Q: What sequence folds into this?
């Protein structure tokens, strides 16, 4: 039986940062990762653009991960790779996990648990494309894995569905590897990816972006031969008569990411339908005492810098929990944070107003030009911050100390966007 204070599941940037922070706080830490190496999704992100906020440098994904892997290894934190959780049981205090790795079957008793399991991509099943099921239809992350990890080129003439960041990055990557990218098709009237990726991945390579259009059908038996494209209305319903057929051998899907939360479900953790991740407090503790969540498992982040930041918060909080410094979330005196008009989501969903400086992450529900972000405790306005614009693809981060605004535990605070 292995006995630890903090067990981290997932060895991506969130899990690595969490393990390092918990260890630095004096906790006995262990990390388990289902893949052969730590680093998470960053291992296959060989483009640059990582670490601009944290290191003020343009690092590639593996370079960014390497900094944390080195810090992790320098601390001699125990870890298992190729390791899977096969059973998880709540105990009076703490949890008992059964894990399987090349070392065999282990039982791990842990005082607290950090879920840092990242997210997964939506597939063709979730976007209802009609037709046959030929080879040549990949999620953007799978195509990236083929090219950047396995050294294989999966496409000659590609259509990309969805203008999320991974799709944009793959449009450029496929072009650099000699494929012809015929266009990126996006059902929404505005792109889903970061503005910098629209410029650097599409405009710089003359790759067309078609908004308010989607793929409705695929053709081909063994291999994809063509796709049917349709314009869509404001409710993203295909418009009859707008169909056109585009010949291609590859369809890349970049239609969204979903936090990976099977373990959270097993533990009956309350999930937020807006984020797809657990509801958590200002210490990133979930609705189950002693279980924390961070990174893309909590909500899908656009920048890895904030993933590491949330990992550090979860790691410190888990270590403090083991020292009995934070309590059962169901008993804590918290304020509820409500995303109102103009907000898609807000994390955390509740917090202790006395905890001091809190970091909030949020996304707007639509594109706003110049606008105010307004925070109200009941009818009382406590904060107003101007933004030149807010766009759903760009996650925002705000630091706020509710103690300074005399917000009482048990009350609720609402957040709204007002167009100016
Ligand atoms: C294509 C792409 C391009 C990106 N570009 C940028 C960029 O330019 N700049 C930027 O800042 N950010 C970028 N990002 C975002 C950033 O890389 C991610 O936000 C970040 O890697 C998420 O970290 P994470 O640790 O939460 O998840 P991940 O990196 O996904 O790590 C999760 C880890 O948990 C493991 N795991 C999952 N379930 C289990 C389990 N049950 N048991 C054991 N292990 C498990 C997984 O194997 C994985 O290693 C990009 C992301 C992608 C996909």
A:
């Amino acid at each position: 039986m292995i006995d630890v204070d903090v067990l981290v599941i997932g060895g991506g940037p969130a899990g690595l940062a969490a393990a390092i922070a918990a260890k630095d706080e004096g906790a006995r830490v262990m990390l388990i990762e289902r893949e052969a190496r730590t680093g998470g999704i960053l291992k296959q992100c060989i483009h640059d653009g990582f670490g601009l906020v944290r290191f003020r440098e343009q690092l590639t994904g593996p370079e960014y991960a390497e900094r944390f892997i080195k810090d992790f290894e320098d601390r001699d934190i125990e870890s298992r790779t190729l390791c899977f959780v096969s059973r998880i049981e709540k105990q009076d205090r703490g949890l008992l996990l059964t894990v399987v790795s090349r070392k065999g079957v282990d039982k791990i008793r842990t005082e607290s648990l950090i879920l840092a399991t990242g997210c997964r991509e939506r597939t063709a099943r979730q976007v209802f494309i009609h037709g046959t099921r030929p080879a040549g239809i990949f999620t953007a992350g799978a195509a990236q894995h083929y090219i950047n990890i396995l050294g294989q080129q999966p496409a000659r003439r590609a259509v990309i569905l969805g203008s999320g960041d991974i799709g944009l990055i793959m449009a450029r990557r496929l072009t650099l590897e000699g494929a012809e990218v015929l266009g990126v098709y996006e059902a929404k009237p505005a792109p889903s990816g970061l503005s910098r990726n629209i410029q650097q991945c599409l405009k710089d390579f003359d790759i067309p972006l078609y908004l308010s259009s989607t793929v409705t059908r695929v053709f081909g038996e063994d291999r994809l031969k063509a796709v049917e494209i349709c314009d869509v209305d404001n409710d993203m319903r295909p418009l009859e008569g707008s169909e056109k057929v585009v010949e291609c051998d590859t369809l890349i899907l970049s239609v969204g990411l979903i936090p990976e939360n099977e373990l959270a479900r097993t533990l009956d953790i309350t999930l937020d339908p807006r984020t797809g991740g657990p509801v958590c407090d200002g210490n990133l503790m979930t609705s189950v005492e002693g279980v924390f969540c961070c990174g893309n498992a909590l909500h899908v982040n656009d920048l890895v810098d904030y993933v590491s930041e949330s990992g550090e918060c979860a790691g410190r909080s888990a270590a403090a929990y083991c020292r009995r410094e934070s309590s059962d979330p169901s008993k804590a005196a918290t304020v509820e944070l409500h995303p109102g008009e103009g907000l898609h989501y807000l994390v955390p969903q509740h917090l202790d107003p006395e905890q001091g400086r809190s970091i909030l992450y949020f996304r707007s529900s639509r594109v706003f030009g110049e606008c105010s972000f307004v925070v109200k405790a009941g009818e009382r306005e406590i904060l107003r911050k101007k933004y030149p614009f807010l766009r759903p693809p760009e996650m925002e981060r705000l630091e706020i100390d509710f103690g300074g605004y005399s917000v009482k535990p048990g009350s609720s605070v609402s957040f709204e966007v007002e167009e100016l």
Remarks:
- The pocket of flavin-adenine dinucleotide is lined by residues 9-15, 32-35, 40-42, 45, 49-50, 84-85, 116-118, 141, 144, 165-166, 169, 260, 263, 295-297, 301, 303-305, 307 (CB under 6 Å).
